Amino acid sequence: MLNSSYLGETLALITAVSWALAVIFYRLAGQHLTPIAYTLFKSLITILLLLLTLVFLDQSIDFSAWTPVEFLLIAASGILGVTLGDVLYVASVNRIGAGMTSIIDCLYTPLMVFFAATVFSESLSGPEIFGGCLVLGSVLMIGIMRDSHPDFSNPEFKKGIFLGVVAQLCMVLAIVTIKNLLNESSLLPIMTLRYIIGTAPLLLFLSKKQHREDFKTAFRFNRVATWSIAGTLLGSYISTLAWFGGFQYEAAGRIAILHQSSTAFLILFATLLLKEKITLLRFAAISLALSGALIVVLS
Q1: Hey, which of 141, 160, 188, 295 would disulfide with 285, CB 3.0 to 4.6 Å?
Q2: What is the DSSP string of 25-70?
């Protein structure tokens, strides 16, 4: 049986690994679908999976279990994380590429550490800070080696950077708004409700023909559907449950550092599954990230 003292760290690493695998499928499916259509597809499938999990575990969404303020916090988390964060993240990747996105992703950990310190009065130990620096350093190495000549003069590129920064802020705030609630309530009902609320506004975009056609494409039995479903299962269901679950058992800043290692896992899986060439710099980046994550877990 898993030692409960490492449960938060274990869930954080599950998040990193499953998210890295999901991104590979996101890349494949995203070439054929708009960000809004794919986010809507992922969210609806995730809601179905969460509802089935609730039934399987004999749980339900009990609105009486939350105060009006707590309900609003869950709703805010859904809007920030699903309606805004997910869509803006995909839109940013489409504009600036995976390499620069890796660099923008580095904002996640310092933002989470900042809010953890100011809102929850948390602090990191020396070894945790050192391990976090190793992880962030590896992510920067990966981003730089992918985009050695970013085109900052391109207006769309600048827009992509802005969208990426806003997406990271939305993701962090989506956690901050309900972290205390996660410590007091069951995870599944909160996750299901926030996904339902966060997905509802996206349904309005189906009024546009392009989004409707892309949405239908995701449900057709072809390679795009296979990639879409695989990415959804790994990224929106498993990864998100482990993501929020990790914050139930461990400090936010510590968990955020382990989440950041997903970029190194992405490079590893791209090498193994997509047969991308492994270079000395890539190997160094992966080793740096895994070493940093190990230091954080053992500290």
Answers
A1: 141
A2: HHHHHHTTS-HHHHHHHHHHHHHHHHHHHHHHTT----GGGS-HHH
